[in-house]
Structures are given as C-alpha cells and as structure tokens.
Design brief:
The complex is a heterodimer of chains A (403) and B (301). With 403 residues, chain A is α/β, with parallel strands linked by helices. Chain A is built from 13 helices and 18 strands. Chain A has a 7-stranded mixed β-sheet, with helices on both faces. In chain A, strands 12-14-13-16-17-18 form a 6-stranded mixed β-sheet, sandwiched between helices. In chain A, helix 1 crosses helix 2. Chain A starts with a strand and ends in a 5-residue tail after the last strand. Helix content of chain B is 39%, strand content 14%. Chain B contains 12 helices and 8 strands. In chain B, strand 5, helix 7 and strand 6 form a beta-alpha-beta unit. In chain B, helix 1 runs parallel beside helix 7. The chains are: A alpha/beta (403), B alpha/beta (301). Chains A and B meet through strand 3, helix 3, helix 5, strand 9 and strand 10 of A and strand 1, helix 2, strand 2, helix 3 and helix 5 of B.
Chain lengths: 403, 301
C-alpha cells in the first residue's frame, strides 16, 4: 500500500500489522489468551504470502523465545508475543535475550498471573520481569500499539537490547479502534535493515555467550576482555542510553508519520495540576476521564502517564512532580509484601528531591476488576481528604475491594 | 562403504587443548562430528560438559560458530538458527544441536519432540555420558539401571529411556545410534545426516571416566565393551529402514556378544551392584539386542 489507510482493528491486529510492516523475518508462535490473535493474524499473512517470514509453530513459550533468540543471533528481525503464564514460562529466555544483547521485540498482552486462574487484565506479568534488562514500553490505545512496535525495532536495533511492548489484555487487545496504517515504503525508510554485530560465519567462527568469569581475562592476543560485571555494566549503560534514544525515536517517528507519544512519559492537563495521577497503559486513559470529572468540580488534577517503565524515567518524573501538592499512583500490579511497582519507583525517584509531593499508592484492576473513571475519581477524592487531614504517608488503597 | 580411520579428513576444528576432563570421550566424538560437517556448521549448545569443553570467554577451543543456549531449549534454539539462516538467505551451513543426555532425555525432550514433529532442518546429536556429569554425576533419564550416582547412592532402579526409539517414533528421516569411541562410525553417520534435510537425530554414547569411575586411559576400551555387551548398539534408521553398523553388525553376524557382568565389573559406579540387578540389565539388553537383530535381518531382505 502506497498511502496511509485507516482500519478499525483490535490491539492485537495493530500489533500484528506492525510486525508485518516491520518485515519481521522469523516469528516464534505459541497461543495464549489474550495474545493468541496476534500470531493467528500473522499466520494468515505468512500463508497468504503477504508476509515473507519463517513462522515457527513451537510447542511452548520457552521455545518461542528460544527461536527468536537464535534467529536474531543469525541476523533475522524477529517477533513474538505472549501473556502472563507464557511470559513466566519463558522467564529464563527473557533474561537470556537481554544478556545476549539481542534486538528482539516482543509483545506482552498484559494479563493477571495465576493462581487462581484468570485470563483477564492486570500488569503483574510484565512488571515481574522489569529487572531482566529489557526496555518496557506501555501503550494506551491501539494506534500507540502499532506505532510503538515500529519504534521498538528502531530502539532495539540501535541499542542492542530487547524491547517489550506491553498493552492491556482485552481492554486493548480485543477492542476495536480506528488505526492509521502507514505505507510500507515509509516504514521501510524508518526502519533500516538489521545487521547483527557478530556474524555467524564458519570462516570467522565465534563462541557466543560462553562461560564468562568474574574477573576480566586475556584473549589470545593478551588483551584483557571484560568479565561478567563489565558486560553487565555495558548492558546497564545501554538501558540508560534508552532514556535519550526513546524520545529521539519517538520524535523522529512523529516527523515522518505525524504522531508522537511523549517518549518516556505523557501528560494530560498537567500544567496547573496540584494533584498528579500516575499510571501506565490504558489505565492512564481512564484517568484522563476522571481528571475531566474532577476538574469540573474545581479540583486541579492532571495525569502523568508512564510510557517507558524500563528504563525508569526518573528525572522526568522528578521534574514533573516538583512543586505539586500530591501524587497518586495507580498500579495494576503489586510487589507482594510491599507496594505497587510504579508507586515504589516514583517514591524512589522523589526521595530527597526538592519540592517533592507526598505519594499515595492505589492498587486497582487486579485480575480484570473493572476500573472506571468514577471509581478512580473516588480514590482521588479520598486521597485528597486524607491529605487534608494531614496524612503524608499512607498504605495503598485497594480500589473497589469488597472484603 | 564405511570410512577407515586413516581416511578421515586431516582438517581439525577442535583445537589442541580444551577444558574437558582427562579421558573424556566427548572430544573424540566432536572431532569426528566437525570433520563430517567440514566445519560448515553452527552449533547450538546448552549448559553441559560441552559448554566446559568449549572454553571460557574470551577464548574458545573449537573453531566453528558456536551459540550457547538455554538448557531446556536446544532443539528450539536450533530451529531458530535454521529459520534465521533460511530467512536471511544463507545456505550451506548445517545447524547442529548438541546436548547431553540430561539436556535431551529430561529437560530438553519437550523442545526436541516439538522440533522433530515440525521436522525442523537440524541435526540433533545427544552425547550420552549417562548422567548429569557437568554438575557432579546426578542421575538422568538416560542413566543405566544399577549405576550409582550422587542422587542414586544405592544404584538407579530404572532402565534408561530409549531415546533413539522415542525419536524414531516421530517419523523423522534419520535416526542413528553410535559411540564416540568409534569415530569412523560417528563420522559416517554425521556425514550421511548432512546430506539429508529435516530433523536428524544421532545418539552418541560417550564414556566418562570421572562419572563412571574408571582410569582415563581406558575410555576407548570401556566404550567398546559397552558395544560388545550390546548395551550400546550401533545402528541407523534411514526413512524407516533399520541397519546395524560397524561393530554391532559384526557382533550380530558372529553372535559373540559379551555379558553385562563383564562390563559392569570395569567401573566404580557399579561397585556392589546386586546380582539380580545385573540379571535384570542382562535381560533388558538381551531383549533389545534380539529386537535390533531381528529388524536388521528383516530390513536387509
């Protein structure tokens, strides 16, 4: 297609469309609700010839990511997607992909972790691998899903780190919205061909990711090569570099396609807001509705959306919260025995910062519990009431809990 | 026509000096394997003794492309290498998955079964040293009955999984059983597998002095005794057609198979083994052997 078209599609179709536009060459495919229709859609396109890719129908998520890791090592652009238990099942591969510094892009269609069984949405799955060394980007609607996957390949291939594109199961994955689909030629220009750093070549044989000792060791020419910690420090540097690269890629995308998503964070009616509501994914969009309702009551609130969760946009969060009265963080996940992951990170970012507001947490939407604007606004009113009563440190509220 | 030992190509892909234990049969096998593929391969290697043989960053003891992969996913990773090579238009490179018996019979069997069912274009070679040797001789699904390991102090009670027959049941184009101490048998089977596309499975018995408890100088003798006792059988199944090869074919003709009791007496892992256990293993070996000989004779007709 030579022109931008608009299609009314689900989030999963938007993800699959992005993979097709990115001309992925190898797909590791395994079903799990609510991800399944991503690989089903790609399977159709591979069979119809609309997408020239090796579609490997593996027997597990562990193998799905194994296929992507190996194919990416060879130099193919790869794609896979999963949810919840699938992500947990591939956990050691998630770490391997990052440690091997491969530019893999994977969709995580956010779903609650079992037990008990739930196929419905929260963000516990991707949050539980936040430390694995991937870039994690959260999307708020289907257009952002398509655009973010395309950006993800640029980010991954530039920094040699894998990128997980996270979006809410069912709320986005199975909900149709109008999505602008850019022409292939434009995407090709945005995404240059991927070339691996180390070729797989019998004439130039290499041993990739062998046993690596704690201390640096000399190579055959006597030159010292990094030990495990040096490799990890380089990996961390790449993740921190993403703080610059993600907004650059988003801005470059905006110049070419006319849409940008805020890079690390996004905001809604934040300018004069005294109280800042923070969340990732579609929950942030629901918060914008709550903000409109609260503003109508004269309450000066705004939204700070977390688009990039890893690397954590520490400086941006600190800067945007400086001088505010109160921050309320809504997490669809929990570090059991402590607090919501985003809340903990926001608090850490604000620690000792000048003019930092108190930060209250709110746990919501676990296992698909409906989170609507009315309930969110109620949580904000209660937070403000507590604040007015002099409360500065508070246990997180569990929204709509009926114990 | 079987290749003679003096006919093997002189090019070496296993460099002098590696980190394997003294007397490890893995190096003998790996030399033959890489020669049979003329060095034009990429290996998928999970955590195992082979990882140790391969060397530590930034040095390597093997001059072929080598990709270390997660323990349970050797066959899936190999599928990914094959898919990646195909998708990027590279041909002439054989994908060799090479894992130990624990990584194959236990943890890796799901990924291996999946790859075989898809007929992924890979050679999967299991080097079977009959326990988790790299982690200190714990029992695996391929450990023989009666063998003492660090998790079966009184001897393992069960017979090993018959991996080649499990793989044969997948209907893949080529399955073979060989021994690292017969490098020409290894060479011929890998060379034949190289010319076939789809999933090819080769099971290579690999004697282990430290795990089986014998002198490193006796590796070849003990490996040969395992074949002579019919515990390790050299054969291949090509498109369903069964054939004994090498020493096993000679034994079938001569009928001079040795006894299990003679074999177990050579190794510390079987010290104190009960007579009834030896009898049980003998009965298991006899039944298998008779079955293999029958198939050999039937398919030769």
């Amino acid at each position: 297609m030579s022109e931008t078209t608009t299609a009314v599609i689900t989030g999963n179709e938007a993800a699959a469309t992005a993979a097709r536009l990115a001309r992925v060459q190898v797909i590791g495919a395994y079903p799990i609700t609510p991800q399944s229709t991503v690989v089903e859609t790609l399977s159709k396109w591979v069979q119809s010839g609309e997408l020239a890719a090796e579609f490997v129908t593996v027997e597990s998520e562990h193998s799905a990511l194994a296929v992507c890791i190996a194919a990416s090592t060879v130099g193919a652009r790869v794609f896979t997607a999963t949810s919840a238990n699938g992500l947990a099942y591939m956990n050691e591969q998630v770490w391997w992909a990052a440690g091997a510094r491969l530019p893999i892009v994977m969709g995580c269609v956010n779903r609650a972790m079992s037990a008990p069984w739930s196929v419905l949405n929260d963000q516990q799955d991707s949050m539980s691998v936040r430390d694995a060394g991937w870039v994690q980007l959260f999307c708020r609607d289907n257009q952002e899903i398509l655009d973010t996957f395309l950006q993800a390949y640029r980010i991954a291939e530039q920094l040699r780190v894998p990128v997980m594109v996270c979006y809410d199961g069912f709320l986005l994955s199975h909900t149709v919205m109008p999505v602008r689909i850019p022409p292939s030629a434009e995407v090709d220009a945005f995404l240059p061909r991927y070339e691996p750093d180390v070729p797989i070549d019998p004439a130039d044989p290499r041993n990739l990711n062998p046993v690596t000792m704690a201390e640096p060791r000399a190579d055959r020419d006597g030159e010292l090569r990094g030990g495990y910690m040096e490799l990890r420090a380089r990996h961390q540097r790449a993740l921190l570099d993403a703080i610059e690269v993600i907004p650059e890629v988003d801005a470059g995308f905006g110049e070419r396609f006319g849409r940008s998503w805020g890079g690390l964070t996004w905001e809604y009616r934040l300018g004069d807001a005294e109280t800042v509501l923070i969340a990732a994914g579609s929950l942030g969009m629901e918060l914008t509705v709550a903000v409109d309702a609260l503003r109508a009551e004269g309450v000066p609130v705004g939204v700070l959306g977390i688009r990039t969760y890893r690397p954590f946009p520490e400086q941006a969060v600190r800067g945007k919260l400086a001088g505010r009265k109160l921050a309320v963080v809504f997490d669809k996940a929990l570090s059991y025995g402590y607090q919501g992951p985003i809340c903990g990170d926001v608090r850490a970012a604000l620690l000792s910062a000048e003019g930092a507001p108190p930060t209250f947490g709110c746990i919501c939407g676990l296992g698909g519990r409906d989170v609507n604007a009315e309930r969110l606004a109620g949580a904000v009113r209660r937070a403000l009431q507590d604040f007015g009563d002099g409360v500065r440190i508070r246990e997180p509220e569990w929204l709509d809990l009926k114990l | 026509m079987a290749t003679g030992i003096t006919d093997l190509p002189t090019g070496e892909f296993v460099l002098p000096g590696n980190r394997a234990c003294a007397g490890c049969a893995l190096g003998i096998g790996l030399r033959a394997i890489t020669k049979a593929l003329d060095g034009k391969l990429v290996m998928a290697v999970p955590a195992s003794c082979l990882t140790v043989l391969g060397g530590m960053y930034p040095t390597s003891s093997v001059a072929v492309p080598w990709v270390n992969v997660v323990f349970a996913s050797t066959a899936a990773a190999a599928s990914g290498l094959a898919a990646g090579l195909k998708a990027t238009g590279r041909d002439g490179i054989t994908v060799l998955a090479m894992a130990g018996d624990g990584g194959t019979a236990d943890m890796g069997i799901q990924a291996l079964s999946g790859a075989a069912e898809r007929n992924a274009d890979i050679i999967y070679l299991c080097y079977d040293n009959e326990a988790y040797m790299n982690t200190g001789t714990q029992r695996s699904g391929a450990t023989p009955q009666g063998a003492r390991t660090t998790t079966t102090w009184n001897g393992k009670r069960e017979n090993p999984k018959d991996l080649p027959r499990i793989m044969e049941a997948h209907g893949i184009p080529y399955v073979a059983s060989t021994s690292a101490v017969y490098p020409t048998d290894v060479y011929d089977k890998v060379a034949k597998a190289r010319g076939i596309s789809g999933t090819r499975y080769i099971h290579m018995n690999t004697p282990c002095p430290s795990g089986w408890t014998f002198e490193p100088k006796d590796t070849v003798a003990i490996g040969k005794l395992a074949v002579d006792a019919g515990l390790v059988v050299l054969y291949e199944v090509e498109d369903g057609r069964f054939r004994l090869t090498g020493r096993s074919a000679s034994l079938a003709k001569s009928g001079k198979r040795k006894m299990v009791a003679e074999y177990v007496a050579t190794q510390g892992r079987f010290r104190g083994i009960a007579e009834e256990t030896v009898a049980s293993v003998q009965a298991w070996a006899d039944e298998r052997w008779d079955g293999f000989v029958s198939r050999h004779e039937a398919d030769a007709r």
